[in-house]
Amino acid sequence: MGLYPAARATVDAVGHVLPGARRARRRMLALYSGFVRPGDVCFDVGANVGNRTEMLLALGARVVAVEPQSSCVQKLQQRFGGNPQVVVVPSALGREPGEADLLVSSAHTISSMSSEWVGRVSETGRFGSHTWGETVTVPLTTLDALIAEHGTPSFCKIDVEGYEAEVLSGLSRPLPVLSFEFTPEAIEGALACLQRLGELGPAVFNYSLGDTGAFALEEWVDGAAMAEEVAGLRDSSTFGDIYARAAARDP
């Protein structure tokens, strides 16, 4: 408990040389390769310093990296500024364009737009002694606006520390494949995401735990079954990503 931000920061700094990080990267690349092909447009929403952006690039994708934290935007621009395959969008996403408050954490990987999520993970001690001591106003755009400008992504990864349902509220059409992060102590947010995706159109779902890079279910399931599955996850020391695939798309 409380070690996750420190571990993420270590991977950010030296992940290219740590054997464990290299194995985790290979697992994620294998997972993503199931639905990302060369030339595809992908969205990395909550890009942070670009680790998932880098993986998507390695698969030949063109990446729209969306990140509201100014310090992380600077690192993204330093890392990918000369790469024509990457567009850095210095913004958060929400249900409509405008502005909103970002709660900035002492660990940049867990800054959040959701005060409710911050309260939940603080109560469980998930992030140890980390605090959210600064609030800054950041611009908001929407998934629909990004699609209008950059095209429909074949894959959209959303990792915004409890604000995922708000991000999906700014989407008015189903996407081929997307993922969103969940934490068991704030599972209501994940259930709201599943409901929203069900409203957009038929979809099937799977999930992965932690950075395993492996699906937990042998078969993709419908929204009701996915909701039942994740609602039963009560271990507040874990986290995961739910994957949604438009039902008409082949595995």
Structure explained in plain terms:
- This protein is an alpha/beta fold and 251 residues long.
- It is built from 9 helices and 10 strands.
- The protein has a single domain (4-97, 140-246), classed as Rossmann fold (3-Layer(aba) Sandwich), CATH 3.40.50.150.
- It is 36% helix and 22% strand.
- The strands form 2 sheets. Strands 3-2-1-7-8-10-9 form a 7-stranded mixed β-sheet, with helices on both faces. Strands 4-6-5 form a 3-stranded mixed β-sheet.
- Helix 8 (187-200) runs antiparallel to helix 9 (223-231).
- The longest helix has 14 residues, at 19-32.
What's the SSE blueprint?
Layout: H1 4-14, H2 19-32, E1 41-45, H3 51-58, E2 62-66, H4 70-80, E3 86-89, E4 92-93, E5 98-104, H5 115-124, E6 134-141, H6 143-150, E7 155-158, H7 164-169, E8 177-182, H8 187-200, E9 203-209, H9 223-231, E10 240-246
Parallel strand pairs: 1-2, 1-7, 2-3, 4-6, 7-8
Antiparallel strand pairs: 5-6, 8-10, 9-10
Helix pairs in contact: 8-9
